[in-house]
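Translate sequence into structure tokens.
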Amino acid sequence: LAIGVALGSGLLSNTVLSGLRDDKQQLQHQIDSLTEDKNALNQKLNAAGEFDALLAPRMVRDALKDKSVVVFRTPDAADGDVDAIARIIGQAGGTVTGEVSLTSEFVEANSADKLLSVVNSPIVPAGKQLNTAALDQGSQAGDLLGMTLLIDKNPTVPPVDDSQRNTVLTALRDTGFLSYNGHIGAANTAVIVTGGALGDDGGNRGATVARLAAGLAPHGSGVVLVGRDGSASGTGPVAVVRSDDGLAGAVSTVDDADSSAGQITSVLALGDLAAGGKPGQYGTGRGASSVTLPQ
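Result follows.
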């Protein structure tokens, strides 16, 4: 009996092992097949991106002719996104008047009081007054930077002179809220380039950037807030704009800046606003009204 049990156990063990080996092989085949499908899709996406990039000069031609753009970037913005958008602005006939980098201290809630004290100091340009309708750090800073860096749509309103502009920028740089290189000139429009999704520790960073954009908007011909995949979800800056009718009515958003299509759309959105169009929400994320602007 003992011999029979031992033999039976061995046969059963071999059968189980053989079955497990077969299952493993089948799973490996499925993994290999899915990997091949993923690689094929990535190749198609890369090809589509290359196609868009090659056609970009034709698609954006004269969209920003004789117009200018000041570029803002948040701490989580990708260099490649910023560089691509700046390049396409040039292809559209526009001029980048400068690049302003917001620091982590600018967007963090624990620096709100310090930022507000700087913004409300005597650096406000002569003859200008901050809007008191919204008193949060993003709105107030956006209001000050808007009156300082953007050219009013009304041609009878002169832009702030270089001396006053330098005073504002220097004060915000010296207190740790932004950085920039070289001369920053006045511009017709502004684009704010951000990153993707914010994690659980995102706090109010997305809201600060969203309200910065809305604070800038009344002072020029248009503001576009541009984020990567994920920026339209959770507490991301694009999501904050799209969830608030007041903000969405003031700022255009694009949620796929990590693609050539999104970078092109960002510039087309700037051109549309500069030509008198209304703000729109573009991309593939939640709250987008269309992938891009109709041409």
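Note: Residues 109 and 203 are 7 Å apart (CA to CA).
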